[in-house]
Amino acid sequence: MSRARCERCLRPSDHCLCALIPALGSRTRVLILQHPSEVNHALNTARLAALGLTNAELQVGEVFEDLALWLSRPGYRACLLFPGEEAVALKAYSADDVSVLLVVPDGTWRKARKLLHLNPLLAALPRVVLTNAPASRYRLRKAPGPEALSTLEAIVHALHTLEPEASFNGLLRPFDALIDGQIAAMGEETFRRNHS
């Protein structure tokens, strides 16, 4: 028998995070392209980001037939948040900058690279990277390096970089609650043994 779940945040009903999810506006539009293997992941941070930002959308797939349409939003300049040889550091908007459509692949590094391979239009976008990223709060995952962030954390840091006058920290409240809940479910001793 499966547990009842919230259809919005996809968490078990008794662990619903909806009360913690904000509705934050941003000048930047965020398009999250999620690999299908991430949809049912217990820590689906991309979904939390899409739910918490009024100017964001989440699309799931491997090949995105409508990508050209999504990238051609009037008034926005699309760029891909992903490392690469010609990637440039994100910086705050200046007065005359066009707003950014920040495209964020969601999945393991291997799956994200696969999304780029299967969607040449995506791979051809100008790339941007984060600088001075804070340490990850994702205490349940063994990161490939100290600069590795969850999708949600990367989006929050990118928005703070682009729009330093605004605060997007509210997006981290459901994330922190999710992590704390997972640690509580496994028990402190198991957490320390496997993740410290």
TrEMBL record:
| Leader peptide range in chain numbering | none
EC number(s) of the enzyme?
A: 2.5.1.25
Family classification = Belongs to the TDD superfamily. DTWD2 family.
Supply the InterPro entries for this chain. Answer: DTW, DTWD2/TAPT
Q: Which organism is it from?
A: Pseudomonas graminis
Q: Would you tell me the protein name for this molecule? A: tRNA-uridine aminocarboxypropyltransferase
Question: What keywords are annotated for this sequence in UniProt?
Answer: S-adenosyl-L-methionine, Transferase, tRNA processing
**One of the record's GO molecular function terms:** tRNA-uridine aminocarboxypropyltransferase activity
Q: Which residues form the DTW domain?
A: 2-187
Superkingdom of origin organism: Bacteria
Q: Is the keyword S-adenosyl-L-methionine assigned to this protein? A: yes
Instruction: Kindly list the biological process annotations in GO that this record carries.
Output: tRNA processing
